[in-house]
Amino acid sequence: MTHKDKWLLFAPLGLVTIGAGACMVQWAGHKKDQRAPTSEWVAAGTAALVVLNTGVSLFGRGVLERMSHELQTNTEKTSVPPTDMLG
Length: 87
Description:
Elements: H1 3-33, H2 38-78
Helix pairs in contact: 1-2
């Protein structure tokens, strides 16, 4: 799998996961507002933060893959074949 393929996989997947985690944080807060048992909203909040942080990690991996792709592409464009120094 190339850096570009990984970038195109991880970046959108990370954004979707961040959105899901943000929604879950709101859901956990709503549970607390509705006076759900403490263990219930704490578990929901913990799961929400795990999902949110996973999304940030996936998106960060996408950024790294994008940078690797850009470096690889720029290196290929600027590399000059070696010349014969003797003649």
